[in-house]
Amino acid sequence: MPESPEVDALAGFVRANAVGRVIREVELEEFRALKTRARPLTELSGRTLAGVRRFGKHVALDTDGPSLLIGFGRAGWARWAEEPGTDPDEAPPVIVRVTFEDGAELALTDAGDWLSLNVSVTDDATSEPSVAKLGPDPLSDAFTREAFDGIAKGRRKQLKALLQEQESLAGIGNAYSDEILHAAKLSPVAHAASLTDAERDRLYAAIRDILGGAFAARRDVPLDRQKAEKVAAMRVHGRTGEVCPVCGDEVRDVPASKGNAQYCATCQTGGVPLEG
Fold first, then answer.
1. In this predicted model, what pLDDT tens digit does every residue of 187-220 receive, in sequence order?
2. Regarding beta strands 49-55 and 58-63, do their DSSP bridges make them parallel or antiparallel, or are they unpaired?
3. How far, in Å, CA of 143 to CA of 120, rounded?
4. pLDDT in the model for residue 45
5. Mean pLDDT on 7-29
6. Count of CB atoms within 10 A of residue 82's CB?
7. Percent of the chain that is helix, strand, coil (3-state, to 5)
8. Architecture of domain 4-132 in this structure
9. CATH topology (fold) of 145-268
10. What is the mean pLDDT of residues 104-119?
11. pLDDT band for position 86 (50/70/90)?
12. Are 266 and 256 spatial neighbours (Cβ–Cβ below 8 Å)?
């Protein structure tokens, strides 16, 4: 799943390489991806790309007319080509193609078993429900320590679920929530309401530190290397059975996660493995 560090890098790439180019057409390869059926993609034809904005795990391609809002969902991503050509072998299927007058192409893909990538044509990306509902970006000035208390204090919600709740914090997904909780030395199944002030301090600091480092590390990485670089940087996520780089204990799966979430018992649960 692309999360805010990777999506931010993608937005930066498109901003650097496509702003100022004229869109020839936007082709819809999978009709279910278009969420604004009353706003056809033909509205973008002939428009000049004027800017690129990121909202959590969403990107808005702003033209001199309407914007194309892209939600990457669980398995969406993008490929860029300066010249038209055939799609790479065994590449994820293309869902939407944005082709520019000079032949360059931004292909939006989805590698999931079910479609999660979606697009909308809108005059105001911030008014679209998927963006309007988002909580603060964890690296924004709005995400203060006091704001975090408003999000977490008293919530009877497990910490891993809270970190991934987009209405509370925008842009954190499965992988970085594991990494954040490991850095904060907190159990993924602990409830936010149970945290002490000191534990909330640690969690707030870990959110800022882990994401801040990831944003810096993903910047300028080629689009086709983003996933590999992200995977390589993980300390516990996706490392089931491997050695925790902090304490040397075995990295374990979070019970009932079906192998999709990991933690270290020594670092996070007082040395006692979580029960299924």
1. 999 999 999 999 999 999 999 999 999 999 999 9
2. antiparallel
3. 27
4. 98
5. 98
6. 11
7. 35, 20, 45
8. Alpha-Beta Barrel (3.20)
9. Helicase, Ruva Protein; domain 3 (1.10.8)
10. 96
11. confident
12. no
Of the listed ranges 85-94, 109-118, 196-205, 244-253, the least confidently predicted one is 85-94
DSSP state string for 163-232: HH-TTTSSS--HHHHHHHHHHHT--TTSBGGG--HHHHHHHHHHHHHHHHHHHHHHTT--GGGHHHHHHH
Q: What angle do CA 3, 178, 151 make, to 5 degrees?
A: 75
Residue 239: helix, strand or coil by DSSP?
coil
Residues 6+ positions from 197 with CB-CB distance below 8 Å? none
CB-side exposure of 167: number of CA atoms within 13 Å?
3
Burial category of 36 from C-beta neighbours within 10 Å (exposed 0-12, middle 13-18, buried 19 and up): middle
End-to-end CA distance of the chain: 25
Token output for 182: 């490991």
The pLDDT tens digits for 238-258 are: 999 999 999 999 999 999 999
Domain residue ranges in the chain: 4-132, 145-268
pTM (global) more than 0.85: yes
Instruction: Output the pLDDT for position 276.
Output: 77
> Could you check whether 4-132 and 145-268 share the same CATH topology?
no
